[in-house]
Amino acid sequence: MTATFEHVRPSACPACNAAPAAEHLADLPLDATLMLSLPGIHCAGCISGVERALLKVPGVREARVNLTLRRAAVQAGPEVTAEALAEVLERAGYEAHELDPGVLATTAADRAGRDLLMRLAVAFFAMMNVMLLSVAVWSGADGVTRDMMHWISAAIAIPAVIFSGRPFYVSAWSALRARRLNMDVPITLAIALAMVTSSYETIHSGHHAYFDAAVMLCFFLLAGRYLDHRTRASARSAAQELAALEVPRAIRLGDAGEETVSVAELVVGDVVRVKPGGRVPVDGVVLSGQSEIDRSLMTGESLPAFAGEGSMVSAGEVNLTGPLTVEVTAAGRDTALHRIADLVAVAESGRANYHSLADQAAKLYAPFVHILSVVAAVGWWLYTQDLRIALNIAAAVLIITCPCALGLAVPAVTTAASGRLFRKGLLIKDATALERLAEADTVVFDKTGTLTNGAPTPLDLDGLPGDAGRVALALAQGSSHPLAVSLAKALAGQGLRPAHVESLREVPGHGVEGTWQGQVVRLGRAAWVGAEAAAETATFLKIGDSAPLTLRFADTLREGAADVVAALMAQGKRVIVISGDTTAAVTRFARDIGIEEVIAEALPHEKAALVADLTAQGAKVLMVGDGLNDTAALAAAHVSISPASALDAARAASDMVLMGRSLAPIADAIRTAVSARKRIRENFTIATVYNVLAVPLAVAGLCSPLIAALAMSLSSITVSLNALRLK
Amino acid sequence: MDILGLLIPVSLFLGAVGLVAFWWMLRKGQFEDPDGDAHRILRDDYDDKPKS
């Protein structure tokens, strides 16, 4: 039963996790297994295609596709990166995303799954054999034959129950030690009491033995638990991944020149160098150098910011064009990145007290069952003065009320629903996520990277006069700045060839400069080329002395975004867009897509605060976001979704991950979740009806092992079939 | 009913064989990718020569 599973919650203290994460990075074997997610594969051709494409990459030793999990595991030398492999597959026509190389975590989960499966198999074997032997007893065997059947049943059932029921005993024991009741306590009690009374009856050649019922109980409950285990992907701690994201090393400039030191050794006042393309390791002030920094992951701003002498930079930001020398103002636990990690931990501890439908059922159920069976036993003891009959009645009551159907009610539905959503490209990480999704009435979207692709594309390139396009292409190819890369790609895509530009050089923080047909040509920031700054994302091209040309960029809408927003509005949900981007950019974007409520220029903690405010007003918030600045809000929301392109930390903080590029599955997911919740409620009703019918029989002492077996299997099968009706 | 003395051990033995076979399959990872294996058997990549 889901209620009794010990949820592995991320640690409340992110700093405690930082050290193991860093060690883990250092210990990674050289010949690593890389994991890729392949949401689009579906056939034999895809398997061959993907494996062949991967094996062609030099350094790859082995590649194996797992179609069930839609993943590829690649054994490769240290020179091969998952990013490069994903690119190779994209070129071959397969959508691929890098997966967290936390292979260790997944193998631990696999081992737990195999362990459960083995216990399930043993229970199944024992159940089938004991059931066959019991059929002989039910059909009227008596005397020595019946005793022999009982003895053989006991010989099979006792070891089988001891082995396969272990998960229940362990969980029940830990619950009792913490002085509380969970579903496993009545289960363990029922199994133990049934085994003891049945053994006693067997020894004294009694009529009734419940070996079959005890084993069947184990089997059905383990089936539920195995389904439950399968639907839960191993969710790793968001805080841990945030810590792993932090750059572990920095280049310190000291009296003895440059030295590479661990970030932990840096103190306020140290001077560090940040190379272009590198992540800033600390919060600090730029002492010298000019560059542009990409803050999109930290703040959601789509436009890279200029960084020169005196600019403030924060840990986690990416330095784009030129080297920077930074004086440390805060390091380690005091950096902005760490403060976000702390926010996540706080937000997660707030959500940990969600009570699932199964929990609510268990809370009503567990005390009721115990009281009922004690009352029945005491009543019969007073009536007959026979302890043996009283114990038999108590065992029968516990077995008949045992939550087989209840234990299958939730996992069967969640399995059916998550299988359906998996085929649509949505991975569910948390067992109760579907229930929480069904309750969501307010949807908060992040803008950059979630509703949009997060990568700017140039607008109206056709309007460029004469050779301007070819010059721009030549200049853009000289820089690794995101706008330049995007511009070069778009221009090359139009079939243009780069003009012959000489003495090409990048001026960090400003742009690219060169000479073309004797004229100075520049591509870069407004102030640098002498143009007026535009309100939106833009870059400027100046050829010689002519007036500068404006190349405007816009973030493209993510596939399915407009449809999802429309569908959510149609379902009557409140839709809000929140972004760290400028007010102008966000409002215009929201108008285009049809969202009325807009909050712009929000800092990470403001996003989390907004979600908390909405929750305080009684709203159940679904948060959809991808950036580092969204992680706290994702963790604080009632339920959260992030796209596959999101940062590891955001994926880890959210309950569901979209595996493809499209946002379209979100609307489907809400529909499926609502229908799943309805089925779960129906299943609880069915299970209760069976109990209400059978309990009077058990209390009256009319419940033979045959009736117990029938009631148990019929209710479990009805519940499973009902789960399959899920649409 | 003497035949029971033979039939019960035989049926238990056969059941145990099934259980051990299942345990072996589990160890060999035959349940890790059921969908993929169903498709793999139909592809013709290694029809002419075995995978080296």
From TrEMBL, chain A:
Pfam families: E1-E2_ATPase, HMA, Hydrolase
Annotated membrane topology: Multi-pass membrane protein
Domain of life: Bacteria
InterPro entries the record matches: ATPase_P-typ_cyto_dom_N, ATPase_P-typ_P_site, ATPase_P-typ_TM_dom_sf, ATPase_P-typ_transduc_dom_A_sf, ATPase_P-type_domA, HAD-like_sf, HAD_sf, Heavy-metal-associated_CS
Keywords for this protein: ATP-binding, Cell membrane, Ion transport, Magnesium, Membrane, Metal-binding, Nucleotide-binding, Phosphoprotein, Translocase, Transmembrane, Transmembrane helix, Transport
PROSITE patterns given in the database record: ATPASE_E1_E2, HMA_1, HMA_2
Major localization class: membrane
Domain HMA intervals: 32-97
MF terms (GO), sorted A to Z: ATP binding; ATP hydrolysis activity; copper ion binding; P-type divalent copper transporter activity
Keyword NAD: no
Residues passing through the membrane, by range: 116-138, 150-169, 181-203, 209-227, 364-383, 389-414, 684-700
GO BP, sorted A to Z: copper ion homeostasis
Cellular component, GO annotation: plasma membrane
The family this protein is said to belong to: Belongs to the cation transport ATPase (P-type) (TC 3.A.3) family. Type IB subfamily.
Name under which the protein is recorded: Cu2+-exporting ATPase
Record lineage: Bacteria, Pseudomonadati, Pseudomonadota, Alphaproteobacteria, Rhodobacterales
Automatic annotation (TrEMBL), chain B:
Signal sequence interval, chain numbering: none
Superkingdom of this protein's organism: Bacteria
Region spans: Disordered: 31-52
Transmembrane feature ranges: 6-26
Stretches with biased composition (Basic and acidic residues): 36-52
Keywords (A to Z) from UniProt: Membrane, Transmembrane, Transmembrane helix
InterPro entries in the record: Cyt_oxidase_maturation_cbb3
Pfam families: FixS
Keyword Magnesium set for record: no
Protein's recorded name: Cbb3-type cytochrome oxidase maturation protein
Lineage: Bacteria, Pseudomonadati, Pseudomonadota, Alphaproteobacteria, Rhodobacterales
